[in-house]
Amino acid sequence: MAEIDALPFPFAFRPEAMALIVIDMQRDFAEPGGFGASLGNDVGRVVAIVPTVKRLIEGFRTAGLPVIHTMECHRSDLSDLPPAKRNRGNPSIRIGDAGPMGRVLVVGEPGTAILDEVAPLPGEFVIEKPGKGACYATSFGEDLKRLGVQQLVFAGVTTEVCVQTTMREANDRGYECLLAEDATESYFPEFKAAALAMIRAQGAIVGWTAMTDQVLKGIADA
């Protein structure tokens, strides 16, 4: 069994049982005119991690390890969008509304697409999720079982919402989870710092964290 230099202690892993989960690297969260920007957020923070996420994805592909992508999105009729989600907050545009990149977070719209730099390759799993966590109302759990993976490395956005929610869902289902610190981001730096601390608290109660270079080195050395 190989190790990745991680916090709060080394992450022991089996390459044959590991997959990369890339959470919601979508135009609506990373580009001006998208949903993230409509909430008043600095989307430049998300753009800044794109090269690191890309490098992590390429490392997994080179090693022949599975890469799974998620997209937060809803059906065109919004039947899977509860009012409690649509009406929350005070954005200039709401989920389902027409925006500069099409209807916000609706399947098939330009803004909902994953960024070109980190786009899925043919054959890679893409999970369309209506909630914050990838396990809710999706095939994610069944897909992981089919792949035979038991350990998950996470990247993507945002750290404290969709990434952490999915990590907690996976942890509850028996998966060992590691978050690549520099391949995830929040619109709020203090939220990212708090999420990282919560994830690895109390002896990795949710999971481990490590830098991308440490993850890739561990995989290469395995």
What would you note in describing this structure?
With 222 residues, the protein is an alpha/beta fold. It has a single domain (2-221), classed as Isochorismatase-like (Rossmann fold, 3-Layer(aba) Sandwich). Helix content is 36%, strand content 21%. The chain contains 8 helices and 10 strands. The strands form 3 sheets. A 6-stranded parallel sheet has the order 7-4-3-8-9-10. Strands 1-2 form a two-stranded antiparallel sheet. Strand 9, helix 7 and strand 10 (208-210) form a beta-alpha-beta unit. Helix 3 packs parallel to helix 8. The longest helix is centred in the N-terminal third of the chain and has 19 residues, at 44-62. It is globular, with a radius of gyration of 17 Å. The termini are close together. The mean pLDDT is 97.
What is the topology?
Layout: E1 2-4, E2 11-13, E3 18-23, H1 27-30, H2 35-38, H3 44-62, E4 67-72, H4 83-86, E5 98-99, E6 102-103, E7 125-129, H5 140-147, E8 151-157, H6 159-172, E9 176-185, H7 189-204, E10 208-210, H8 212-221
On the 0 to 100 scale, the average pLDDT is 97
Overall helicity: 25-40%
Q: Bin the strand percentage.
A: 15-25%
Structural class: alpha/beta
CATH architecture: 3-Layer(aba) Sandwich
In the predicted model, the low-confidence regions spanning at least 5 consecutive residues are none
The CATH topology, please? Rossmann fold
Summarize the entry for a quick read.
With 222 residues, the protein is an alpha/beta fold. The protein is built from 8 helices and 10 strands.
Structural descriptors:
10 strands, 222 residues, six-stranded parallel beta sheet, Rossmann fold
